[in-house]
UniProtKB/TrEMBL annotation:
<feature type="transmembrane region" description="Helical">
    <location>
        <begin position="670"/>
        <end position="690"/>
    </location>
</feature>
<keyword id="KW-0961">Cell wall biogenesis/degradation</keyword>
<dbReference type="Pfam" id="PF03552">
    <property type="entry name" value="Cellulose_synt"/>
</dbReference>
<dbReference type="GO" id="GO:0071669">
    <property type="term" value="P:plant-type cell wall organization or biogenesis"/>
</dbReference>
<feature type="binding site">
    <location>
        <position position="341"/>
    </location>
    <ligand>
        <name>UDP-alpha-D-glucose</name>
    </ligand>
</feature>
<feature type="binding site">
    <location>
        <position position="366"/>
    </location>
    <ligand>
        <name>Mn(2+)</name>
    </ligand>
</feature>
<feature type="binding site">
    <location>
        <position position="116"/>
    </location>
    <ligand>
        <name>UDP-alpha-D-glucose</name>
    </ligand>
</feature>
<dbReference type="GO" id="GO:0016020">
    <property type="term" value="C:membrane"/>
</dbReference>
<feature type="binding site">
    <location>
        <position position="122"/>
    </location>
    <ligand>
        <name>UDP-alpha-D-glucose</name>
    </ligand>
</feature>
<dbReference type="InterPro" id="IPR005150">
    <property type="entry name" value="Cellulose_synth"/>
</dbReference>
<feature type="transmembrane region" description="Helical">
    <location>
        <begin position="534"/>
        <end position="557"/>
    </location>
</feature>
<protein>
    <recommendedName>
        <fullName>Glycosyltransferase 2-like domain-containing protein</fullName>
    </recommendedName>
</protein>
<dbReference type="InterPro" id="IPR029044">
    <property type="entry name" value="Nucleotide-diphossugar_trans"/>
</dbReference>
<keyword id="KW-0808">Transferase</keyword>
<feature type="binding site">
    <location>
        <position position="123"/>
    </location>
    <ligand>
        <name>UDP-alpha-D-glucose</name>
    </ligand>
</feature>
<feature type="transmembrane region" description="Helical">
    <location>
        <begin position="640"/>
        <end position="658"/>
    </location>
</feature>
<keyword id="KW-0812">Transmembrane</keyword>
Amino acid sequence: MEDLVEKPWKPLSRKVPIPPGILSPYRLLVMVRFVALFFFLVWRVTNPNMDALWLWGMSIVCELWFAFSWLLDQMPKLNPINRAADLVALREKFESPSPTNPTGRSDLPGLDVFISTADPYKEPPLVTANTLLSILATEYPVEKLFVYISDDGGALLNFEAMAEASAFAKVWVPFCRKHGIEPRNPEAYFTQKGDPTKGKKRPDFVKDRRWIKREYDEFKIRVNGLADLIRRRANAMNARERKLARDKQAAGEADALAAVKAATWMADGTHWPGTWLDPAPDHGKGDHGSIVQVMIKNPHHDVVYGEAGEHPYLDMTDVDVRIPMFAYLSREKRAGYDHNKKAGAMNAMVRASAILSNGPFMLNFDCDHYIYNCMAIREAMCYMLDRGGDRICYIQFPQRFEGIDPSDRYANHNTVFFDGNMRALDGLQGPMYDVVTGYRMHNRGWRSVYCITRRDAFRGTAPINLTDRLHQVLRWATGSVEIFFSKNNALLASRRLKFLQRMAYLNVGIYPFTSLFLIMYCLLPALSLFSGQFIVATLDPTFLCYLLLITVTLMLLCLLEVKWSGIGLEEWWRNEQFWVIGGTSAHLAAVLQGLLKVVAGIEISFTLTAKAAADDDDDPFAELYLIKTVYAEIPQYSKLLGGGFFSFWVLAHYYPFAKGLMGRRGRTPTIVYVWAGLISITVSLLWITISPPDDRITQGGIDV
């Protein structure tokens, strides 16, 4: 390490500022809209509707909250930045030959990689195995990479699947290094579209690929057949044990047969110490012993090249055939103890890794997320090992997903958050995807860094139906409510937390409560219709000017935000649609569930269905009712245009929800019939309002 000090320092990373031509107008528009909102609210407060103070009061409360919520969301976005890592400088600094290191052995720090899984039936072992293979084949010094998997269910199925993956890695990892393929998840690699030979120069690539594809297909068959194999093995071994017990009982041992248990057996003929197929004491899902098995030993520090003729089908000459260390871990669980779910599993892996490898850095994976860019870990190290890296607590990567429909109707990609909000937070104290961890670290003065690579660093799976998506949003929002009522509330933060970062954390804690004001605001048009009153007494030109200015600045801000974040307009629109859907269903349920848990200690576990979410059909009007009141005293046929516009606006926001709810029946989508019915009803009601059968409705639309 002495050579690291002697070498001239070259920055490993740099900040790439947003062009002033985009950022300066963006900040100016934020200030203009803030001023406009202030004067608009002043006008609303000082000009009450004396004929309907209750209606006016409800609208004022909602509008004040919406303004406050917008401010909390917008202010942390004033300083977005981009970053770039220099992999060449990293290699020159830590992996180039020197007088004390003539071979150029890597001086990069050790890295412990953690994979978490719990249920092999909800998280298929083949998916976990592919994640493991992508990590073992990544471009990082083999002797510095240590991989651990935590099986919180203690299932033999996961154990044997990981053993199969370890064996397959002996040919898969050298194949990846030899031909430099991407991605290094075999399932993703063999299912991707395009010409696999593009950019490949070695003449034996086609032959090697054909052979490794056949090997992977056989590997998949073995892994997918493990569940049946384990059950048949258990039945055979248990039948043998019962036969032996009957023989002993016949020989005079009275309790021999009663002592036989329906155990789960390993391939070596011993009992599995984890969870059995037929649960028994000390062998249940939440009641079993600990298991630690090193499946791939720590390799030698020196490079080990393959020899000619070493493998009958794959030429590994001049290819490093070493594989990183890999260990399987299942922590002990006993009934009556709180095991803290994934956090407890992480703690167990940290303790095991402290003994086996003790890497100074850790990288955490879900079992369904894999490495899509083999250089991603090196890019993260550019920030950690650069000057000032001792103040960085963690590196956050954006989440990218596969298996989502092309239109992304439920905003699963969530690019507005990952490419917009997180990039903006990087200009403050850093991103905070895991809120509690980020808050505690930032509250102590640490910083975090947001790392967006040109090629996606990691990819995973996302909910594919509306029910699962809303359930995911419900969990997130419930967690936010719990954080708001805990000691991790941003209002209680120390002075080390910057003001704008504090606002961002506060917004995370209170955003679910916006659903209460949304629903209240959505009731105002119906109350206005039945009472014959409106939230404003008269339409003043000043009011209309403020309203126009607020709307125009909001649209311009959205356009500039799309510009500096790099997201598409369609992605932004999908996010807006799902904000309406989730904000009027899952967020409200989260507020109720969170309050019950915090105040009364009652935990409610349920899954939102599309039917429940559909009860709030009017919620998309939340931010448009101010505009709707403008049409209250416009001549009659303008009311038809205005009402029709807002009706179509509702349908546009709820289209993904309705499409997911109704699906398709036959050749004609059911949503066509739904749209036709809603449009017909809307037009009919508007026409009756304009041309009523009696004279009780005047031109202004108010009873006289």
